[in-house]
Write a structure and sequence with these properties.
Strand content: 5-15%
Shape: globular
Distance between the termini: 55 Å
Number of domains: 1
Helix content: 40-55%
Largest sheet: 2 strands, antiparallel
Order of helices and strands: HHHHEEH
Length: 109
């Protein structure tokens, strides 16, 4: 039997810290050790957790030095992941997210 946490890790494919997935599962009201089945897979909490896991890939820190990159996604990969995450957020009635690449200026008043 597959657990909820294993199903999320398997579905994301790209490496994501186990602890991060646990945190997302808790925030979405799921239990890591619960059995993953069709009813869980079609549930709002699981879809939200999957979208959160995918979005965490986009917001992760990327390291580059001397022509070596660690954890760096291409722009095409980032867009594809964001599109899938937003489709899931839309399915469950939550607002879409952006990739955070738009420059923003904050002014303290």
């Amino acid at each position: 039997m597959k657990t909820v946490i294993q199903a999320l890790i398997d579905e994301v494919i790209y490496p994501i810290p186990y602890g991060k997935v646990e945190n997302i599962i808790i925030k979405r009201g799921l239990y890591a050790g619960d059995t993953f089945d069709a009813s869980v897979a079609s549930g709002i909490s699981y879809k939200g957790a999957l979208a959160d896991c995918l979005y965490s890939l986009i917001t992760a820190i990327n390291f580059s030095e001397a022509d070596k990159s660690v954890g760096t996604l291409t722009d095409a990969q980032r867009k594809a992941i964001l599109k899938r995450a937003n489709a899931l957020y839309g399915e469950i009635g939550e607002d879409e997210v952006d990739d955070g690449s738009t420059p923003r200026v904050y002014i303290n008043c």
